[in-house]
Inverse folding.
């Protein structure tokens, strides 16, 4: 991979913004290339490997904005993939999604690898988590991230029944049932919020039943009302 930089091939294809060295991009690409072979790249479809390598190559550029025609500002990675490389819009969306998920996942790594009893879990990208233990909150946050990029994980997770259930599970309770049991008169934001809480509960309790889920939703709703009345 280092030959890409040594032979100036990267700059032949891409024009980097001022202050960006090609070695940063090539280094990320090289690291992920080695990782793929370490874990067994043959288990990944070619398209997933391609997108993974694109995500690695452009990771140092993920926060860079490009001013295009009519001064329209778009992510530089989006511009490179769609306009420079002439690839599909979905490729750009997937790569950007991987970058976004990677930044979020970095905030969870200290808690995931810690051998101590975690007392506080605070991330700035998801604060409205249901009231469960710290360990279950960590499980919920990890599950939400995997669901964001589920197409990239679907093949690997198909080998693990528990992981597959987490990615493809169906809601235990539908919108009408939520409205009935929580006495919500009409749809709207309240239903959407309840459905998000439902997803979180299922990630925390994958073996739970619909009745247990509704009971938890009821307790969460009453707790929220109590906090609102106290303000």
């Amino acid at each position: 991979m280092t030959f890409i930089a040594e032979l100036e091939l990267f700059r032949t294809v891409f024009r980097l913004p001022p202050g960006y060295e090609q070695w940063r991009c090539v280094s990320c690409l090289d690291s992920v290339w080695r990782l793929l072979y370490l874990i067994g790249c043959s288990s990944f479809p070619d398209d997933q490997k391609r997108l993974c390598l694109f995500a690695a190559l452009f990771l140092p550029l993920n926060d860079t904005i490009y001013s295009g025609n009519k001064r329209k500002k778009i992510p530089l990675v989006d511009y490179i993939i769609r306009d420079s490389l002439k690839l599909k819009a979905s490729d750009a969306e997937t790569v950007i999604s991987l970058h976004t998920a990677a930044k979020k996942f970095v905030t969870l790594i200290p808690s995931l690898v810690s051998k101590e009893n975690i007392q506080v879990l605070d991330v700035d990208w998801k604060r409205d988590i249901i009231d469960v233990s710290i360990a279950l909150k960590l499980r919920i946050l990890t599950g939400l991230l995997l669901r964001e990029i589920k197409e990239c994980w679907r093949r690997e997770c198909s080998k693990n029944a528990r992981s597959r259930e987490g990615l493809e599970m169906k809601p235990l309770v539908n919108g009408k049932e939520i409205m009935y049991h929580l006495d919500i008169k009409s749809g709207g934001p309240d239903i959407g919020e309840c459905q998000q809480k439902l997803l979180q509960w299922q990630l925390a309790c994958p073996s739970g039943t619909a009745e247990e889920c509704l009971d938890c939703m009821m307790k969460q709703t009453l707790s929220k009302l109590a906090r609102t009345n106290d303000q």
Residues 89-113 form the longest helix (25 residues). The first strand starts at residue 65 and ends at 67. Residues 74 and 90 are 15 Å apart (CA to CA).
